[in-house]
Amino acid sequence: MNKLLVAISLYLFPLLLFSQGDSLYFSNAVRINLKKYKKESSLAFRTGNVERGKYLFDSLVDYRLTGTKMDNFTFKKVNRKKIKLNSFKKPVVLITYASWCVMSPGEIPALNKIAQKYKDDVAIVVLFWDRRNKMKRLARKFNRHITVCYAHESYKGDSNAVTSLKHTLGLPTSFYLDSKLHIVDIKRCGMQLCPKKTPYNKAYALNYNSFLEGLSTIIIDKEVKKDMLAIK
Question: Which residues on adjacent β-strands are paired with residue 129?
Fold first, then answer.
């Protein structure tokens, strides 16, 4: 009898990874592929092979994570009210930060500009991996068209989001989701694009164009790329 139960469990386990519409959830997909990715990417960066590290990240996104469904996480807004990802009835850009993570010059202004311009087409959610008191000051820098949230290991109910998002792909990271929360693309952002000494105007343009590149994959009925800035 016990052997039969074990056999049934082994048969059903892969099915449990799928949900409505046979969508594999991001949290399961990243967990399945994370061990090998972390081992190989750690070796690449430890040996100074940045191109290899970037290739591994892009391959993980393109072949293992794109098309999976983002979990319907619940986040807390600055005013402490809770919000679920599926409450947004349009494509979502989810960007993870932390107060101790140095942002690229021009990054927030670029995101504010895009949020204002495309407010009717996309929801932009900024998630800080912080306690509320740590991120309140930074939250004021984002305009009213951006939903600023926070999550932390010490808060009850945040462990799943922290494990699935923070402790997997790192930060800052941008997740581009369609209106059904399926992942269309995942990008590195911030200082990954702009070294510290990058002039402000160039950093602004690089960040602006990077965000637009992601938007172009989830706002399919608009010519988003035509708004890209010239980089000098």
Answer: 151
* Bridge partner residues of 69 (DSSP): 25, 182
**Tokens 């999976």 sit at which residue?**
68
What is the C-alpha separation between 101 and 148, in angstroms, rounded? Answer: 16
For the packed helices 50-60 and 26-46, what is the interaxial angle rounded to 10 degrees?
A: 170
> What is the bridge-based pairing of β-strands 146-151 and 123-129?
parallel
pLDDT for residue 13: 41
The predicted model scores a pTM of 0.87
Q: How far apart are CA 227 and CA 231, in angstroms?
A: 13
Helices and strands of the chain, counted as H and E runs: 8, 7
Share of the chain above pLDDT 90, in %: 74
* Measured distance CA(205)–CA(106) in Å, rounded: 8
Segments in the chain forming alpha helices (H): 2-16, 26-46, 50-60, 107-117, 132-139, 159-161, 167-169, 200-218
User: Across the beta sheet with 92-97, what order do the strands follow?
Assistant: 82-84, 74-77, 146-151, 123-129, 92-97, 173-177, 183-188
Task: With both helix axes pointing from N to C terminus, report the angle between 107-117 and 200-218 in degrees, rounded to the nearest 10.
Answer: 40
